[in-house]
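Task card 7
Instruction: Convert sequence to structure tokens.
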Amino acid sequence: MPTYNQAQWLPGALASVVDLDHAGLCVVNDGSTDSTAKVLKAFDDIGTDFWTLEPGRNEGTAAAINRGVDSMSVHMEALTWVSSDNVMHRGWLPTLTAELENGAGAAYGGFYYCTPERVSYLFKPYDPELLINDVNCYFGPAFLIRKDVWLEAGPHRGRISHDYDHWLRVEEVCWRRGLPIVGVDQPLCWYSAHDKRVTVTRAREFDAHHWQAEARKRRGIACMLLTGSGSNSGGARRALLAASEWWLSCSSVRSPTSTPKSGFGGGACHESAHPLPGLLSPALLNWRHPGGHRRGERRG
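Output:
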């Protein structure tokens, strides 16, 4: 849990996550100047696997998340990060853990979007084309990712849109390894939409389009490796369509699992009939280079 000057919401956020079985919580106080340290001290004796890190200066949310992951990853089988101004629903962690135990590489749930005027329930089923086409990270604040998938995807980067960038890379790891991403259509969190959120106070630093362009380039390189650079044959498009069918088969939305298997498993849990690298988005079927030509078309 990274936190910076959110002492107003921190007690509620902590109370919703500290009393969890088989889980640890690391709070990274990212140079807060309010009463955050005092709030954290009040939770020192809660009798759970709970500790805090204090870098001493504000390094940003991405750096704080990475610090927390570095301190916890040795002890955990799955990882997530929670905001210090949100309240998690009771049962959110067992619900998502059950999906990972049944073979998912990552799982996420719905959430209540809370403003002073109204409360709305938000959830979008997993769609392998959606994330690369929409810079809004629709997975939401309640999620869980296998540790090996998280570490292979790499650390959080950037300013405001670090979560969007990380999810793009998590998605690619899951595709490559044949692991489904599961959406659970159930409210698992209360998201507090207040005007002191970083996405509001630092909106000018919004960098999702940079990560979107990087991911398209990264996935486009895989396309070139698969089909041959500059290929104008119909075979290239047929290969991409076959790949898209496989990715769509990885899409899954289900109710919470009642009989989870034990352990997260080490191998692929979603077999693919197509021996293709899971690095392409079906969205790239219609993606054009900056010069205006479609991949596979001749220039001029």
